[in-house]
């Protein structure tokens, strides 16, 4: 399309004018680095010498982080523990200019974390050896649930769009779900849910991956034809206007209530570095692009471009404005400043 590049730039330029509420499971992604240097005498295993570690916002935290990096005004809603990981996440968001009023601290529950041990020689790429998840087994107190519901009501007037990042932990209680579906009847809600996408029945857009779409639709997916069936079935089941099924290195497929179906191939090489957090990035761009002036097809393509950036980075990664414009320009054979190279 002749003016596609200019249209995308206009949408991206509108991102800082958009206010987004993100509700979901905020996770600390911990990356621990080491160098294998000997065999243990205790067991037939390699001993890894500790070299350092980093903490990065993961799951809903990655969604919040991506939105902030793209210039949106973000209102996160989530729960962290009264621990070093929880303190880190709240400080991280605050330093990035994000209002953390809705990131509630619980003394009765730790911060959910996923610790990945990456090992490799000094001059070689470090590879993930093991992942240790610290989850929660905790019933949310009624007082905490009330705080969350009250905060949702408080910020709803201030936001243009709601993004749900549900990883199946504890924040989306039945009452919170009811509140989200009530909001979705009046405002755009984009829902990404690991295990219960169909519960967000009123969401304007849902963004499952193939496995989630298979479970939600009841259709076994073994190829593109099955993806078509699953997408159309989800549109029938939901009150959504659009469904985006992400397909890893096969790109994504968009389904609209209007009948429009688009197969969007992956942008760039299919030799991806790391898919961690790519689904969060897709949800971010879908949620951000619609109030910034995009239609569903443009929003899906922008999300595909953004995913093409983050899958080439190690670990839980974000995309910024310049990276997004650069990959679009390359795909459309344009100069990033708007000049035609073709």
How much is the average pLDDT?
91
Rounded Rg: 20 Å
**Looking at CATH, which topology would you report?**
UDP-N-acetylmuramoyl-L-alanine:D-glutamate ligase
| Succession of helices and strands | HEEEHEHEEEHEHEEHHEEEHHH
Strand order of the largest sheet: 5-4-1-8-9-10-11-12-13
Q: What's the CATH H-level superfamily name?
A: Ribokinase
Query: What is the share of helical residues?
Result: 25-40%
| Shape, per Cα inertia axes | globular
Annotate the secondary structure layout:
Elements: H1 4-13, E1 19-24, E2 26-39, E3 46-59, H2 60-69, E4 73-81, H3 84-95, E5 103-106, E6 113-119, E7 127-134, H4 142-156, E8 161-166, H5 174-184, E9 188-193, E10 205-206, H6 210-217, H7 224-237, E11 242-246, E12 252-256, E13 261-264, H8 278-289, H9 296-310, H10 321-331
Parallel strand pairs: 1-4, 1-8, 2-6, 4-5, 8-9, 9-10, 10-11
Antiparallel strand pairs: 2-3, 6-7, 11-12, 12-13
